[in-house]
Write a structure and sequence with these properties.
InterPro entries: NTF2-like_dom_sf, SEC_C_motif, YchJ-like, YchJ-like_M
Organism: Mycolicibacterium aichiense
Strand content: 35-45%
Radius of gyration: 14 Å
Largest sheet: 4 strands, antiparallel
CATH topology: Nuclear Transport Factor 2, Chain: A
Number of domains: 1
Structural class: alpha+beta
Order of helices and strands: HHHEEEE
Protein name: UPF0225 protein MAIC_45090
Family: Belongs to the UPF0225 family.
Strand order of the largest sheet: 1-2-3-4
Pfam families: SEC-C, YchJ_M-like
Number of strands: 4
């Protein structure tokens, strides 16, 4: 993906001014929703290192294998609770659309986030629907 392409997170901003600086470590997420969007974008562009690095050390897996044949096609933020600057935790409910081979699908999750060392991290989530 080029930095001038629209960001996969659905913000409407170019990737190079939206999630790419977070992926490169040039900036950090200021809210739980911003981290959630940047993680979705990382999945969409195949940057699993970023996904792993932004997963809370207490809950992250040892490794993240790529999902062969899976293409992320869109993100919808359904709800947020807390997760603003100054908060210590937050939740983001989202629907992430994907295609696996010819079949479309939707991942509907309510994710939990926490601040550690002044950075937002993904903790875990509940699959909905």
């Amino acid at each position: 993906m080029r930095s001038t392409d629209l960001c996969p997170c659905g913000s409407g901003a170019p990737f190079g001014r939206c999630c790419l600086p977070l992926h490169r470590g040039e900036s950090k997420a200021g809210t739980a929703q911003q981290l959630m969007r940047s993680r979705y974008s990382a999945y969409a562009v195949g940057d699993l290192d970023y996904v792993w690095q932004t997963w809370h050390p207490r809950t992250r897996p040892d490794a993240l294998p790529p999902a062969d044949g899976l293409t992320w096609t869109g993100l919808e933020i359904v709800d947020t609770a807390d997760g603003q600057p100054g908060d210590e935790s937050g939740e983001v409910e989202f629907r992430a659309r994907y295609r696996q081979g010819p079949r479309p699908g939707v991942l509907h999750e309510r994710s939990r986030f926490a601040v550690r060392a002044r950075r937002w991290f993904y903790l875990d989530g509940d699959i909905l629907d």
